[in-house]
Amino acid sequence: MAAAAAAAAAAVGGQQPSQPELPASGLALDKAATAAHLKAALSRPDNRAGAEELQALLERVLSAERPLAAAAGGEDAAAAAGGGGGPGAAEEEALEWCKCLLAGGGGYDEFCAAVRAYDPAALCGLVWTANFVAYRCRTCGISPCMSLCAECFHQGDHTGHDFNMFRSQAGGACDCGDSNVMRESGFCKRHQIKSSSNIPCVPKDLLMMSEFVLPRFIFCLIQYLREGYNEPADGPSEKDLNKVLQLLEPQISFLEDLTKMGGAMRSVLTQVLTNQQNYKDLTSGLGENACVKKSHEKYLIALKSSGLTYPEDKLVYGVQEPSAGTSSLAVQGFVGATGTLGQVDSSDEDDQDGSQGLGKRKRVKLSSGTKDQSIMDVLKHKSFLEELLFWTIKYEFPQKMVTFLLNMLPDQEYKVAFTKTFVQHYAFIMKTLKKSHESDTMSNRIVHISVQLFSNEELARQVTEECQLLDIMVTVLLYMMESCLIKSELQDEENSLHVVVNCGEALLKNNTYWPLVSDFINILSHQSVAKRFLEDHGLLVTWMNFVSFFQGMNLNKRELNEHVEFESQTYYAAFAAELEACAQPMWGLLSHCKVRETQEYTRNVVRYCLEALQDWFDAINFVDEPAPNQVTFHLPLHRYYAMFLSKAVKCQELDLDSVLPDQEMLMKLMIHPLQIQASLAEIHSNMWVRNGLQIKGQAMTYVQSHFCNSMIDPDIYLLQVCASRLDPDYFISSVFERFKVVDLLTMASQHQNTVLDAEHERSMLEGALTFLVILLSLRLHLGMSDDEILRAEMVAQLCMNDRTHSSLLDLIPENPNPKSGIIPGSYSFESVLSAVADFKAPVFEPGGSMQQGMYTPKAEVWDQEFDPVMVILRTVYRRDVQSAMDRYTAFLKQSGKFPGNPWPPYKKRTSLHPSYKGLMRLLHCKTLHIVLFTLLYKILMDHQNLSEHVLCMVLYLIELGLENSAEEESDEEASVGGPERCHDSWFPGSNLVSNMRHFINYVRVRVPETAPEVKRDSPASTSSDNLGSFQNSGTAQVFSLVAERRKKFQEIINRSSSEANQVVRPKTSSKWSAPGSAPQLTTAILEIKESILSLLIKLHHKLSGKQNSYYPPWLDDIEILIQPEIPKYSHGDGITAVERILLKAASQSRMNKRIIEEICRKVTPPVPPKKVTAAEKKTLDKEERRQKARERQQKLLAEFASRQKSFMETAMDVDSPENDIPMEITTAEPQVSEAVYDCVICGQSGPSSEDRPTGLVVLLQASSVLGQCRDNVEPKKLPITEEEQIYPWDTCAAVHDVRLSLLQRYFKDSSCLLAVSIGWEGGVYVQTCGHTLHIDCHKSYMESLRNDQVLQGFSVDKGEFTCPLCRQFANSVLPCYPGSNVENNPWQRPSNKSIQDLIKEVEELQGRPGAFPVSISSETNLSKEMESVMKDIKNTTQKKYRDYSKTPGSPDNDFLFMYSVARTNLELELIHRGGNLCSGGASTAGKRSCLNQLFHVLALHMRLYSIDSEYNPWRKLTQLEEMNPQLGYEEQQPEVPILYHDVTSLLLIQILMMPQPLRKDHFTCIVKVLFTLLYTQALAELSVKCSEEDRSAWKHAGALKKSTCDAEKSYEVLLSFVISELSKGKLYHEEGTQECAMVNPIAWSPESMEKYLQDFCLPFLRITSLLQHHLFGEDLPSCQEEEEFSVLASCLGLLPTFYQTEHPFISASCLDWPVPAFDIITQWCFEIKSFTERHAEQGKALLIQESKWKLPHLLQLPENYNTIFQYYHRKTCSVCTKVPKDPAVCLVCGTFVCLKGLCCKQQSYCECVLHSQNCGAGTGIFLLINASVIIIIRGHRFCLWGSVYLDAHGEEDRDLRRGKPLYICKERYKVLEQQWISHTFDHINKRWGPHYNGL
Q1: Which end of the chain is more exposed for a tag (fewer CB within 10 A), N or C?
Q2: Sheet holding 133-137, edge to edge
Q3: pLDDT at 1164
Q4: CA 160 → CA 163, 164, 201, 809, 1845, distances in Å?
Q5: Lowest-pLDDT range of 792-801, 1624-1633, 1724-1733
Q6: Cα separation of 769 and 746, whole Å?
Q7: CB 932 within 8 A of CB 736
Q8: In contact, 1072 and 753? CB cutoff 8 Å
């Protein structure tokens, strides 16, 4: 112990340790010893000495001067400090000391483990940063912000819950175990046990050292932070701050690790951080230590520069004002406040000495108990925690610090202390945020913290009570907005006193206020907090003051002359601000005003809201007329008022009148919302075009689903309230005046509109009427229940278009505040959805677009619930209304309810809440009746500017009036009492039912002198402002809407206030007087003699185009009047509507019924026949002509459609083999000697000739699909654990590679290259759309494409183009060989030559050099083209897939490549046919085949390389040679034995070496010869595969039969012979015991051997039959699978025809030996024998050929996407060992790659592109893990294919935005696989783009 003490003493003494050269381990020992000694000293009862000793040691180790001096670059300073080794060494040393001291001499790791054992893990508390994948379960969450880490989520039970996965935006923390935020049922297994009980108590000495060391350590950290902060003029630069933070990284990480040790250590840290005494002792700066003093000064400077004061106890500063130049206006709002608001004088910014300056502006501050300490300006730090937070804010929330502070939150005591500290710094946070350059990042970090604190109701309540949280938040928000106020220009520009926020400021544009507002919304979601807010009058006043800053912001002024130069986009900011800063807090407050007991709150809000509105009207100098040509969409005060009114009536049973203001205020209230409605109509009428597109954007945003229930809905509701309480005549005339259509409402046929251009009149009139219809029929706030509202919204959205589940969720407006009660996805949503809609499962058209699961309205919804009014209200685009009507029309046609073009149906409404009954008075006021009468008259008289829409709305209003008529009127004329006798001359009363029958005889109108009415007294139409009417008595009364409105207004004002006379300036503004240029107006008197009823009946005649068309239905069936709801009338056009109205009018009054009957009798007296008027005749003719034209059109269309269909079938059909009609490539008549081709460019037909060749449009692509075949049927599974891996050794490509390299090891290279095929990987596949063109036409076509500047999806320079006819993608042209296509009869006739003769002929023909009708020497166009297409084919694939020879560039290589191209195409076609030829038929798997042309091109080039005749394998197959046992093995490698050759390759070589066109009998001869070889190979392989006993048994059995007559056709004899020949070598000897075990012990019966031999031979027969089909155009027979062999054999001519009779079919009967069988077999076996003498193992391996490949498949994917996501999204890349940002996995081979990852880039190719070249020869199919979508790479292009994972509603979730569980969609995956196998990605997917190797 002495040594340790000495060391400690030395350390304390502060000298350097005496042996500086002590080895590191010694030093560690030394530290440990010191620590142990100190721990012992401190454990004694009297531990003062130990404590001092420790303090001194820490003082030395943790001196703050070192690191920053080093950082500043003072090398000597660092050296002097003894740290040496650069800036980091000293800190590391300090950290080592701390770790040793904490552990008290033991090992640090053991110490950590020991502390962890005492962790009562009740909470998870895992903190994450942005982009982390977390979960949220709405079923388990109490707070909407609840989130869980993936581990806790998967360990809890959330089956059937409403959860989703999300990518964290700002970071967060796991709430598992916290019952304040989530229900306990959702806790995971680890956090379910409340484990505090069974955790033992922490032993005192374990953490004793921590309590001493940590305060110093944290103080040291704070000193660093103080030191590092320099306050430059413009705020510290990012760089400096980051530098300091980088240096502190290890220290903060160390603290973070401490927090992870669990509860025991956290509570120590909490003690340290919150202990005020410690803080005072260490940081006061009063001690001797100069360094501490200096640091304290820096701290004070930092405080001061932040505009904060540090209230020293000696002198109290005056309270600072946060920013000079803030508006004094806000203060007016404050001053009236009472309650907790006190007022003090605050000094100005520059006046820092605390003396009271004069003339100070009043600034309100909130009292905080005893000390006068302004919320905004004073901060006093009393603990480490407080100062740490201060620096965290100062440094703009470094991620590490945030994580450390949050990691401590599971400690309850800390949580409370930290929350209070956070609140205390709230104002400071706001100031720093405003100044920050990185406000986005900072916002996220702030919310990361605050959401953890304020989501907890208990905590929020506590802080609200103890720290004035609400006061602080509201004040801070107010101050924040005050920095960007400007004068409002609304209404009275010069004298306005109102200020609004300036939406162009960064604060609003960048949403900088977002974190503070989101905190406010968060705390208002807690009932206890919201109640305090609603009870506190002072706060409400302040808040209304805040809201009024947004009232009238972003004012639009209509441009009248020229187009605005710069379209400002500030409206985004304005809408976002109103939604977030005003509407969301409003919804939060409303959610707590749901019951009767909360009436008081509503009264408070309404009261202060009205006060604020009154102040606003005063401030903008508003009287009664809004200023023209300006509109603002932002009236948050109106909307607050409206929403609280609505709540009061709906939920709290408040009497509406008790919260309504007087009439004058109501009139003011309605003006601005009405102005918005009129402006909407103006914007849609294109009257604002000069303001640019953004004004349309505003009109759309105002009604858009996220905004509508905070904007247009409250506005309309407020107008409904005003309308229900104001005089109806006044209201109606105001509406028409606002919409500027007053002048139009005249009986005269011409009029002048002084305020509106003629082209806008019609749409404005439609707008005004539509608005009235909406106003009168919308019931959202007037009595509908929440479920009814939800249903109506849903029906409206579904009627416009079918919707996916997610888009429907998005389109249904929900209260924006997440806690409002309607949760998206809640049960009511699902149940309503299933009630109104049917689910249409996703459909897949192969080659069509991928559709998603959609919901479509049920038939009964169309029938009964389709509500055009709701649709109009909710459409953002006008076209959606049309779309809804079209769908409605289609439904009626389909269900046979109505054939024509229906009108929008009239829908019955929910009944009105009694408080709003007054609204219906609008329908029963004379002003409206006059308007309706006038419009009906004008429509009947065909005046201009009226539309069907106007009529529809007029009828709708009449019908609404009839539905809502006040009382059953008596039959006598109702006498109208009361003083109001306006318009008596028009109508006697105000009830629509009785006014409908009132006849109006004469009307006096003002018309321009030019009008026709002046000249003669004819029935006529439209006028100016004035409508008048003549009673029969002749007294004329002129009626003017505007004058009427003025009069009413005056009355109301006088009634409501006696001194109103001074207020109302009668505004006879010039805009109503006509411009001087207009012609004079004169008065004319019109004779009308109509009533509304008579007009309706005439209208019926007009619409139906027949006289006397209306016949009252009740004359036949009186019952009809009693139950007028008749389904017959519910759907139909205008005629139906008129009939329905007349029926309703009749059923409501007997008088009307009688009058209707009279009118019908009177309308047209029976007329003499001559009086069919010319006009009528004209219309009749017109009808007939129309009918005929229609029929003609139908006929044309039908013809066109059928033409189009046949074209589509021939040209476009990419992927459906059924309806395939082969094109004219192969003409069917064999007599025609030459094939004729159509050129799709020049349209000429003709043969392909030498000098003007024709070519097929083809797409050449490299393909590795064949290489992916495996030998088992089950596809491989995508690996989803570390154990599962996919090894490619069993793929077809790998097996062929191994075989070739084995051959190349032992045999002559040139011979090896003839023994196999290549192209399993990177083979060239050729496909065509079947269209042909002249090659010269093609060249000019390419030239024109090159000059075309349009952006194409393909690269013309690479030779790519689209077929000019069918637009299919292509990249080359394959020349058609001149001559006939279907072989001429002479060629096909079977000749009777013997096989021996044919063999000789074949040999001779192959020997002839280039025996081609065209000699190659004469360069014709054709041969040039043939060469160029060959070049194209070679360039299609990469060099590595072409060159397999050991000598690069050898001709054998090209030879091999060419016949392999043929092989690849045949094999692929076989795969497209499903791997066999059972289906037969001429259909070439849905593609038109170009194999014939391809063969010609290949044959032409193959014949350039003639094979030396002695090497020609044909010889070996057909001739016996004398065997020479010493065949010169030594000097060179031997040739490949013929039994090792691949027979299919031999076939292609033989055929391509023959002159074309080939004779059929030569073809058959070649096939026969090759079949003998194939059969021998089968026997040899069989002999190798079976066991020794089987072999000897067969050998003897066969030997006995050898002498029989057809021994050569008996497989037993042949097999026995093969075995005996092969056993001469060492082939069978090498079998050790291990081999025998491996061989499958099959009992070989004759049947199984026969099947084995057939299976071995079948692949060859299939390829050969396909070849025969293409070369000779013969159809393939179809057959059963079991007879495929025999059918193909006879089709190929291997079977003698008489053979059909024998029943059990034997494959050997197909053999036809050209030379004695036993001799040739001996010869073949001899070659093998000589090889196996040396290499028995390899010899044996080469005999076994894997020929039975199954179809290729993509990897099999798991059912649930989550399994893929969880494994791959955290998986590290094998190349760069980082977790990729965009991980992807190849669906062909399962390789994991980084998409776009620069880390894995090689020679400018990113990893995915590279992989697509290696794995798929340029085609790659990748699943993007983080997006769930599949991306296809094809060569230099790529496209997004879509997703094969869909959610429960059949929808994709691209980028996993919704995070719902996704399940595999097997059909889609099949479609993907099909496109891969059939190589049709290029044709089917349309949106391709270049990837520039960057994927």
Answers
A1: N
A2: 148-149, 133-137, 163-167
A3: 57
A4: 9, 12, 41, 19, 19
A5: 1624-1633
A6: 16
A7: no
A8: no
- pLDDT score, position 1777: 82
Q: Residue 1448, SS3?
A: coil
> What is the Cα–Cα distance from 270 to 799, expressed in whole angstroms?
59
User: In whole angstroms, what is the distance from residue 810 CA to residue 829 CA?
Assistant: 12
Hey, CA dihedral for 1707, 1713, 1719, 1725, is it positive or negative? negative
- The three-state secondary structure class of 1254 is strand
Contact between residue 1680 and residue 1478 where contact means Cβ atoms under 8 Å apart: yes
> H or E element: which one contains 363?
strand 362-366
Q: Where are the beta strands (DSSP E) in 516-609?
A: 556-557
Q: For 582, which DSSP code?
A: I
Cα separation, 1759 vs 340, whole angstroms: 61
In order of 83, 881, 1271, 1460, 1789, the CA distances from 1752 in angstroms are 66, 50, 9, 19, 11
pLDDT, one tens digit per residue, over 1784-1804 is 999 999 999 998 888 888 888
List Cβ neighbours of 378 (8 Å cut-off, separation of 6 or more): 308, 309, 311, 317, 319
Name the pTM for this structure. Answer: 0.82
Q: By C-alpha distance, which of 1460, 1492, 1485 is closest to 1266?
A: 1460
The CA–CA distances, whole Å, from 367 to 370, 376, 468, 1325 equal 8, 12, 9, 84
**Neighbouring C-beta atoms of residue 1118, cutoff 10 Å:** 9
Q: How many CB atoms lie within 10 A of CB 926?
A: 27
For residue 1168, is the peptide bond before it cis, meaning its omega torsion is within 30 degrees of 0?
no
Tens of pLDDT, residues 1535-1551: 888 888 999 999 998 88
Q: How far is 1104 from 1110, CA to CA, in rounded Å?
A: 9
Q: What are 1798's two structure tokens? A: 């620069």
Please provide the DSSP assignment of 246-307 as one string.
HHHHHHHHHHHHHHTT-HHHHHHHHHHHH-HHHHHHHHSS-SS-HHHHHHHHHHHHHHHHTT
Residue-wise pLDDT tens digits, 372-416: 346 777 778 888 898 899 999 988 899 889 999 999 998 889 999
Amino acid residing at 1856: L
What pLDDT score does 859 carry? 94
Q: What are phi and psi of 1177, to 5 degrees?
A: -60, -40
pLDDT tens for residues 854-869? 999 999 999 999 999 9
- Would you tell me the crossing angle of helices 728-738 and 758-777 to the nearest 10 degrees? 140
Structure-token match 């032992």, residue found: 1306
Percent of the chain with pLDDT over 70: 78
Average pLDDT over residues 32-45: 73
Tell me the average pLDDT across 757-779: 93
pLDDT at 56 over 70: yes
Contact 365, 375 (CB under 8 A): yes
Asked if residues 647 and 579 have their Cβ atoms less than 8 Å apart, the reply is: no
- Residues in Cβ contact with 790 at an 8 Å cutoff, skipping those fewer than 6 apart: 812, 822, 828, 829, 832
Write a three-state SS string for 1488-1499.
Answer: ECCHHHHHHHHH
CB count, 10 Å around CB of 483?
17
| pLDDT, tens digit, 9 for 90 and up, residues 1659-1693 | 999 999 999 988 888 888 888 888 888 888 888 88
d(CA 638, CA 1066): 26
pLDDT at residue 1831 is higher than 60: yes
Region of residue 1319 (phi > 0: left; psi between -120 and 50: alpha; otherwise: beta): left
- What count of Cα atoms within 13 Å lies in the side-chain half-sphere of residue 1749? 28
Q: 1420: burial class by Cβ within 10 Å (0-12, 13-18, 19+)?
A: middle
